[in-house]
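Forum > Structural Biology > Help requests

Title: Can anyone predict the 3D structure of Protein SCAI-like?

Hi all, first post here. I have the sequence for Protein SCAI-like but no way to get a structure on my laptop. I'd be grateful if someone could post the structure tokens.
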Amino acid sequence: MAEEDVVRKTFRALVESADRKFARVRDLPSYGRAQGQHYFQKVFKAYMRLWKYQQEHRPELVKAGLNRWEIGEIAGRIGQLYFGQYMRTSEARFLVEAYIFYEAILKRRYFEGCGVKDLRVRFKELRFYARFLLVSLILNRTEMVKVVVEKLRALIDDCKANFRETNFKEWKLVEQEILRFINIDTTFTIPSSRPFRYCAMLNCHPNSVPYVARFHAKKVLKFRDAILMSYHRNEVKFAELTLDVYRMLQCLEWEPSGSFYQKHPAEPKENGVAVDYSGASGLIDMNLAADMTDPALPPNPRKAILYRPSLTHLIAVSYKSC
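Reply #1:
Sure, ran it for you. Structure tokens for Protein SCAI-like below:
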């Protein structure tokens, strides 16, 4: 058997194994303590093995017919897993990791250039943009939000022109939602104002506040869990994240890193081209965000985000979050 056949079959087996594990955790609720944590460890391990394998055998896989969008889909799944872990744990490093993977997919144009007649791939690209928008919003990467919105708008128009028999009304609503969201958020936000998140570079540590320190000596203060929800109709929202919950979400978190307020010098590549590393570098690497969080900071409280929940749903979430 040719070496290319062995590599191709091994790769497909790894993809199928990772996809099966992904299906087991995809629809698990994002609230509750340690919900299916052992499954997440298995699926992360499966995708780490898959990602490493495609990196080591890229030439053989491309020769065997591997498409760039398939690489983008793997990276997108990993980003999706990281974002899911952020929603379950509120650990900022997972949010940053998700952003790094999504940004790399965009910059490397994994989904661009594939045949316009492949509707299935077009839908994958649409979902990628929607997920990247949500991550960028929560991380306050406003410039990236604008870039992705334009990409999403152009793709929707292109799909409507090339797939006239398919209804893209739902995606048009997604476009309208995000445009309304950022327009309203920008209107009521002062550009020079400080971020909603608590930043160690701009704020003192809570234990250093005199009245907190006195109380802390008698009883340890620990804010562990929060339930954020909204019931109003016709609210400004994107997906199930309303504008008020979006702001509350950030008010209950530490800024992932003070590096967001420091401009790092550009570092040259080997070919002499300068690359700015002030933001996420776009290098797809596991645990790249490990150095972007301050271990001295207290953990963020876990947050369950609910959109117009029923009473029974609210009670269930409250019980499992305790």
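Strands lie at 225-230, 237-238, 241-242, 267-268, 274-275, 302-307. The chain has eleven helices and six strands.
Shout if anything looks off.
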